[in-house]
Amino acid sequence: MRGAGNKFLGRLAGLVILGAMLVSSLALRSTGTGSPDYTWRRIHEGGTLVVGVDPSIPPFAAFVDEGLAGIDVEVAQALGAEFGVPVRFVLVTYDGMFDALYTGQIDLIIAALRPDTNRAKQVFYTQAYFDAGQVVVGLNDALPQHLDDLSGQRVVVEFASDGDLALRPLAGYLTIISALSVEEAIQIVLDGEVDYALIDAISARLASRTHPQLQVSDTALVNDPYVIAMRRSDWRLYNAIENILNQWKTDGTLEAIIRRWL
Amino acid sequence: MFAKSRNWAAVINKQAALLRGAVFLGLLIVWAAPIPPFREPKPAPSPTVQIGPPQSVQTIDPRVCVHTRLTDEVESWKIQKTLQLVREMGASTIVEFFPWAYIENSQGTYDWNHVDRTLLHAENQGLQVIARLGLVPAWAQGDAERATLNYLPDESFDDFARFVGAFAARYQGRIDHLIIWNEPNLNFEWGERPPEPVAYTRLLGLAYNAAHEANPDVVILGGALASTLAAPGGLQGGWDELDYLQRMYEAGAGAYFDALAVHNYPFTQPPQAEPAPDILNFRRVELIRQIMEDNGDSAKPIYITETGWNDHPRYAYAVRPAQRIQYTLAMYDYSQRYPWLEVICLWQFRLPAPTNSYPDYFTLVSTNFDLKPIYEALQAYARGWQ
């Protein structure tokens, strides 16, 4: 009986080891690498989190009287606090930000950055920390959640904006009114001349601060995700930031940062 | 009977053991197998490209020009489609970058295929081509420690000039406008080192002589200086182009270009905004013109080879999409008063792949060939439809 128990435990242990090997293999495949993450090690050995931000994209990063400030700056600082390390900012623009990342001058790009599949071999992109896409703004509570829901409606857009370009293929199914600016589009909604406006999420949030009667759809009808980028070798850092973003979305940390600016 | 069944049990146990072994082996193989390489999705077959009958540009303003981005375009049909749309918009000229590093990757061996192909399609559409030449091949970069793709050591100036001469000779009568280098007043474009107007003048002189020897009709466009307020010297990443141009003249550059190429980015300013040395706007070109006249160079024209507004929704240096259209059309109208202005080339017609950032909002046509409203507005202007 005792021998049979040992045999059973031995087989169980073998299966557990096999399972662990399989799971670790799949996990490594999902991150695309099994190489050491030297950035993660450096950060956790008392290092600094070095973040590239683009100060030409307010309110995500810009110079104000107090210095560098914005949503991206606060997200970076909050990540540094989670890791227990200070954050050093490096100013980057689009032209040089990926070179700065590839050559190790920065650990992360947090710069109102959209994911680019052409760089997927070199870069990990996190989930979106903000969606700057096109949202519906209106005066009633029940707002459309999909482009199809706009069928038969009168919708104002800013002329030649991303919202305008998104609706043009649907022109036969709804009435599109063009405004020369976002402000004009909002005013047309407030005046009750149309059912909705389709404008970018940032403009919508700012407008709803000025005009509390405006309702803004919870989700973007056309997505424009802003993500964090890092080298593909930094898979531990990637996993850690993904976990943090998940936690922040649950406990409201992320929304609190965004609300301070939008 | 009992003994027989025990034999069966042994056989079954043996088979079970073999099965467990096979499963273990399978799992081991799965675990140990190398990670499969990332595979690009198989591209759809390219449409067949046929050269149609020769076309000509219909335009009421021959100054309308665009800077195309065909350098990294690998599919012929996309080159053809791009240039067809340029012609249909009513632009009669393109500026295109032909990197030295791509053409003379090995010293003395030229691969002209990409230039030939681009020119074949441009000529078929009736377009004039202005070639921008630069980008240093590895063999000409010299000291590898300092090398960048824009780093040209003094000892390689002659190599670049030889390339310019070879280009001018091969395309004589087909590409007669050559821009020598790009924005040499920026540290980045001068090989991550402080700009040197005297050194650039020497490079320009060597290229000018080589090109004119090969093609007496060539028009050498000097400068292509970046619009910048950076203090002279390069400590702020660049060198104010007004000061840089004056120093070029002092170094004798006036003898080495037939026309001046100008880059002009008005950012958020309307085209009519008053010029001043400390402001970047469209009419800054008047200040540049004044320097030319002060240096006795008023007989030469100016080619604006890069300009345009950006309409990214959040970029601090962008305008709203409607403003971009309004300003662009107003720029072509306002600049009618500049008799010395040969072309105004908009940066940039289309990108081979989206950047997913603000550079996408300089384009007139999307990567997928969707026409933006600014394309339609420019077309209506250039074709005289409005």
What does this molecule look like?
The complex is a heterodimer of chains A (262) and B (386). The relative contact order of chain A is 0.16. In chain A, the strands form three sheets. In chain A, strands 1, 4, 5, 6, 7 and 13 form a six-stranded mixed sheet that branches. Chain A has a five-stranded mixed sheet with strand order 10-9-11-8-12. In chain A, strands 2-3 form a two-stranded antiparallel sheet. Chain A is 42% helix and 21% strand. The longest helix of chain A has 30 residues, at 2-31. Chain A has helices at residues 2-31, 38-44, 71-83, 94-102, 162-167, 182-190, 201-210, 235-251, 253-261, and strands at 49-53, 62-64, 67-69, 87-91, 108-113, 123-125, 130-131, 134-138, 154-158, 175-179, 196-200, 215-216, 225-231. Chain A has two domains: 38-131 and 224-261, Periplasmic binding protein-like II (D-Maltodextrin-Binding Protein, domain 2, 3-Layer(aba) Sandwich), CATH 3.40.190; 134-216, Periplasmic binding protein-like II (D-Maltodextrin-Binding Protein, domain 2, 3-Layer(aba) Sandwich), CATH 3.40.190. The mean pLDDT of chain A is 90. Chain A is built from nine helices and 13 strands. Chain A is an alpha/beta fold and 262 residues long. Chain B has 386 residues and is an alpha/beta fold. Chain B has one domain (64-382): TIM Barrel, CATH 3.20.20.80. In chain B, α5 links the parallel β3 and β4 (177-180). Chain B is globular, with a radius of gyration of 28 Å. The model of chain B is unreliable at 1-6 (pLDDT under 50). The A-B interface holds A 18, 21-22, 24-25, 28-29, 32, 34, 55-58, 60, 62, 94, 112-116, 118, 120-121, 132, 158-162, 164-165, 180-182, 200, 202-203 and B 24, 27-28, 30-31, 35, 38, 311, 313-317, 320-322, 324-325, 353-359, 370, 372-374.
